[in-house]
Batch of 2 targets.
Target 1
Amino acid sequence: MIELREITEEDFHDVLSLELSEDQQKAKLVAPNVRSLAEAWLYRANEDVFPYAVYNNEELVGFILIDVDEEERAYMIWRMMIDKNHQGKCYGKKLVEKVIEIARQREDMDVLHCNYVVGNDAMKKIVESFGFVSNGFDDEHNEQLMKLDVK
Ligand SMILES: CC(C)(COP(=O)(O)OP(=O)(O)OC[C@H]1O[C@@H](n2cnc3c(N)ncnc32)[C@H](O)[C@@H]1OP(=O)(O)O)[C@@H](O)C(=O)NCCC(=O)NCCS
């Protein structure tokens, strides 16, 4: 079972050791986890950016950074990654499914956003399988913007 857990002193180093394949790193599909944790710290006063360790049962398999915009009633998967040794086991898909479930439980959220770099076929396949639809294109970051109604 996929779970989002707060990162603690016990698993902090393991979260930083999670890795992508060389090709995925070169393609810059997602920022390094250390950067995401630094950004979560930077925006901590706003209380709207939440980093989590992703566990499958008791095993650490990935990382996710969630952004919550109460004013816009929008939930966003800002960053997510599954460690290279755990990819291809459906954890990425189950992780997105879990976030959809969490967003749907929040009555103050209408929409879930999830964007991906063009050419990220795994992420494209995952979000489309849950019914996300295009929300435009970000030229600056070469990202396809996707959204899902969670009302
Ligand atoms: C994207 C990512 C999270 C997917 O995690 P994963 O656990 O390997 O994915 P899953 O095993 O759940 O696979 C989901 C689907 O994508 C497909 N898939 C996986 N890699 C693929 C690839 N390179 N090209 C096309 N399809 C791919 C799988 O076959 C599966 O399809 P299915 O449900 O029809 O069988 C992972 O590859 C990753 O961390 N990538 C680098 C970081 C990244 O891209 N983050 C997303 C930023 S928005």
Note: The chain has five helices and eight strands.
Target 2
Amino acid sequence: MTTLFQDFQRIIRENEPLSSHSTMRVGGPAALAAFPTCADELSALIARAGEGGVRYIIVGNASNILFSDRGFDGLAIFTTAMRRVSWNGSAVTAECGASLTGLAAAATKKGLSGLEFAFGIPGTVGGAVYMNAGAYGSQISAVLTASEYLRDGVIHRREAADHAFGYRTSVYRSTDDVILSAEFTLTPGDPEAIAAKAKQNMESRRSKQPLEYPNAGSVFKRPEGAFPGALIEQAGLKGLRIGGAEISEKHANFIINRGNATADDILRLTETAQKRVYSQFGILLETEIIHIQ
Ligand SMILES: Cc1cc2nc3c(=O)[nH]c(=O)nc-3n(C[C@H](O)[C@H](O)[C@H](O)COP(=O)(O)OP(=O)(O)OC[C@H]3O[C@@H](n4cnc5c(N)ncnc54)[C@H](O)[C@@H]3O)c2cc1C
């Protein structure tokens, strides 16, 4: 496999521990990990993987991913080196690997409103569009005007209305398209009010979420009319530990890594919560975190 990617040596690593790239700090090695710096490199890597029959995955900041303990036996393509951002008045185009929180901070400095919700979401622009990331009453779909994506080596543009956005989903979840960049239109506003709202959101996160431990955000999606954290807490599971993983005492919809958790520990806790909530309340919780194996 390494020979196949020989001419990409500058941007490729062998046996790369996925744990050091995921916010959960869990996961075995990827046979190969690549860090393209532009769309051409990304496209060439995918083409080469196709020629060699090598399995590949696209990864942003792995803040919504649980990698397996066995790792990944193909090519993990990380987008985090593709992070150019260009502003044009109140519009901004950001490459897929740009930090969402970084973009929100830049918007705040410019007195532009619309991304205050995104403060503290530790993902990339690509991951956020893919998931339609959201918080505090807003989401990516409220500010996105278009995205560019790669399909079969060709770059296409998709307008906002064609993204099939829903709760933590977009059209990208049902395709193999790779998001290259996204365009957002923000609204000029009072810089102080924007900064205050962003600060308030960040403080609310710090007080409610176990940010002091590695985690991958909300484990379960919100079912209609209920909150997973409350259901898990009422089922008496707060603080439950399996191996090095724990259902957070601070927020029961978070599983934290107390230092030596394995993906297996986390999956077993996830299943326990799912089963107990179902047997007690008849509600089947659906996972938000994506398990890659
Ligand atoms: C402490 C914490 C708080 C969080 N709070 C929130 C929150 O408030 N709201 C929220 O919605 N989420 C939240 N999350 C979850 C996560 O940060 C978001 O879902 C984020 O948008 C994921 O971005 P990422 O770059 O990390 O994507 P990854 O986790 O790397 O990938 C997620 C999925 O997107 C795909 N993907 C990534 N980039 C691309 C691309 N360029 N093209 C195609 N597919 C791609 C991957 O293949 C994968 O299937 C939180 C996570 C943590 C750890």
Note: The pocket of flavin-adenine dinucleotide is lined by residues 23, 57-65, 79, 96, 121-124, 126-128, 130-131, 133-135, 172, 178-179, 209, 211, 215-217, 290 (CB under 6 Å).
